[in-house]
Amino acid sequence: MPEAWREVPPTAGLPLRWRDFLPPRGRSLEAGLAALLQLPPVQVECSGTAALIVALTTLKQLSPRRSVVIPAYTCPLVALAIVHCGLKPVLCDLRKDHFDLCLRTLEATCDDDTLAIIPTHLGGRLADVAGVKKIAQGSGAMVIEDAAQALGATCQGRPAGASGDIGFYSLAVGKGLSLYEGGVLVTRDAGLRARLRETSERLAPYRPARELQRLLQLAGYAALYRPAGLRLAYGLPLRRALGKGRLIEAVGDDFTDAIPRHRVGAWRRAIGANALGRLPLFLEKLSRQAATRKARLATIPGIRVMDDPEGGRGTWPYFMVLMPGVQARDAALAQLWSTGLGVSRLFIHALPDYPYLAAPLGGADVPHARDFAARMLTVSNSPWLREADFLRVCAVLAEHA
Ligand SMILES: Cc1ncc(COP(=O)(O)O)c(C=O)c1O
User: Fold this and answer.
1) Ligand 1 pocket test: which of 45, 74, 77 has the largest number of ligand atoms within 8 Å of its C-beta?
2) Closest CA to 197 of 58, 46, 63
3) What is the pTM of this model?
4) String of DSSP letters for 169-200
5) Is the CB of 378 inside a 6 Å radius of any atom of ligand 1?
6) Sheet hosting strand 376-380, strand order edge to edge
7) CA-CA distance, 360 to 257, in Å (whole number)?
8) Is residue 50 predicted with pLDDT exceeding 80?
9) Residue 379 CA to chain centroid, in angstroms?
10) Atom of ligand 1 minimally distant from the CA of 183
11) For residues 348 and 353, what is the distance between their CA atoms, to the nearest angstrom?
């Protein structure tokens, strides 16, 4: 295929096969996910954000507390979901040079209004949930683990997302497993699980037109999620947005508070169940590729690659690379972002700096999150990124670091 037609995705998702659209060959999506996560029955929702809304609405009914503490650098949908539920998002700054919550700041931030804390496993990397749980117990808050980007990761042998009171995962486009849009909600607590189910039945009716739209989008995804198709589906809109300087649009952070809520239909769940059978081997393959490429990236003086703590086995959709400064990061991106080699940015801003979050969050003082947003870029760990292209990326990073 000519070079100019190829596009590597910024994150390594599991490609769908047409066979996945045939009737289910084994267990249901819910049963397959429960087995993967070593958990009791799981709940499938129409997105990770919808799963979070079900969780927050349920907790709100159980407690008079109204604040929800989140990392100051995370998916803006998390803040929008909290506001959507009539709750108050409270930002906690990050550890310096890291994506995870600063536990000292967290301790000072939590009070007797804290309903929940949301530690977040970003980019498949593991957050310190044990540290958050200690602080949550001290302040009487619940822990909702955001494992939207970490389905299949484990820490000390335990699945990421399964240590908090509630956990959720995203099955959106580009995630390990995708239903085009989808989410999974989990808890070990049987009483809470029954309540989450009740809330979901109330909030998410079956909407046939929306389901048909998602099914067609999923078929389009199956057709185009490959190096030639991605040029059209991902590369063209990306370059158009970059050409106009619209960075929020370029990474798909241009969200609104209109968050769809509906059931996921049986056919889409069956497609997910069929694809799920291939996920463990796919994650293993990414992990092997990540081990050598991470080591190669780590030899570049001046940069830092996010990794897992001891005992952590994260997933590897992409590498989070921290450059020495904003100029170095932007110079590397100027050379790489539109070349189709899978180099990108994650969330463009720390949360208070999105114009649409200025009302609930503006003015928050979160220097480490702002610094992380300003210096970080992502390098795809897609198996479609050829070794020679990966080395080209490393050379550009080395030049600017
Ligand atoms: C960290 C994080 N949390 C929550 C979400 C929301 O998930 P969804 O897009 O499935 O609604 C995302 C989406 O990418 C995410 O990255």
Assistant:
1) 77
2) 58
3) 0.97
4) EE--TTSSS--SS-EEEE-S-HHHHHHHHHHH
5) no
6) 304-305, 318-322, 376-380, 343-344
7) 12
8) yes
9) 15
10) 10
11) 9
